[in-house]
Design goal:
By secondary structure, this protein is α+β, with helices and mostly antiparallel strands. It contains 6 helices and 5 strands, in the order αββααααβββα. The chain is 52% helix and 25% strand. Strand 4 (124-136) and strand 5 (141-149) form a beta hairpin.
Length: 171
C-alpha cells in the first residue's frame, strides 16, 4: 500500500479499494477456472474423436478440412497435417465420391446418408455407411462427414441371408 497516496480520503476509501481488489481477484480466479474447464473439455472431445473407429472429418463450406481423426487417416492414408486448410477433394480423391453428398447437405442443411456403399480397395471389397450432417456453430458453417466401415456387418447379413435360403430349400 506504499504506492497509494496517503491522505484522509484514501484512508477512508481503503475498505472500498480492498473490496475492488478482492472482486478483481475473484474474477481472475473464475476466468482461470473457466479456461481450465474449456481446455479439459476440448481435450475430452479430442480424445473421443481420436478413439472412434469411424472416420470423422469436418469440412468448411469450401471443402477445406477443419478436423480429422486417426480413423480418417487410416481410411485414406492421408495425414491430417497435409490436409488442414486444403481441399479434401484434391488431396484425397478417393473421398470425392462423397462430394455430391456434402454439396447436398450444404445446400439443404439436412442430413444425408449412403448405406452399404461397396468400394474396391487393396484388401478387397469394403462396405461403408456414410453420414453427412450440417455443422452449425457460432462462426463456423460446414459439414461433418462420418464414415463407418460396415464390411463385417454386411458380410454377416449376407451369410445369414444365404443360410436362410439354404434352410428354406433344404427344409
Amino acid at each position: 500500500m506504499d504506492y497509494v497516496v496517503k491522505s484522509a480520503e484514501t484512508l477512508t476509501d481503503m475498505p472500498h479499494i480492498a473490496e475492488r481488489a478482492l472482486r478483481e481477484w475473484r474474477h481472475i480466479i473464475e476466468r482461470l477456472q473457466a479456461e481450465r474447464e474449456i481446455a479439459r473439455l476440448q481435450n475430452l472431445l479430442q480424445n473421443i474423436t481420436d478413439s472412434m473407429p469411424s472416420a470423422l472429418i469436418t469440412l468448411d463450406t469450401e471443402g477445406h478440412v477443419l478436423t480429422w481423426n486417426p480413423a480418417a487417416e487410416q481410411l485414406t492414408n492421408c495425414t491430417k497435417e497435409a490436409l488442414y486448410h486444403d481441399s479434401l477433394w484434391e488431396l484425397c480423391p478417393e473421398l470425392d465420391r462423397y462430394h455430391f453428398l456434402v454439396d447436398e447437405v450444404l445446400r439443404t442443411q439436412q442430413v444425408a446418408h449412403q448405406h452399404r456403399e461397396a468400394v474396391s480397395t487393396r484388401q478387397g471389397i469394403r462396405y461403408y455407411d456414410v453420414h453427412v450432417f450440417p455443422l452449425l456453430a457460432d462462426r463456423v458453417t460446414g459439414v461433418v462427414l462420418h464414415i463407418d466401415d460396415a464390411t463385417q456387418r454386411v458380410q454377416l447379413e449376407e451369410t445369414m441371408l444365404q443360410a436362410t435360403k439354404m434352410a428354406s430349400v433344404g427344409g
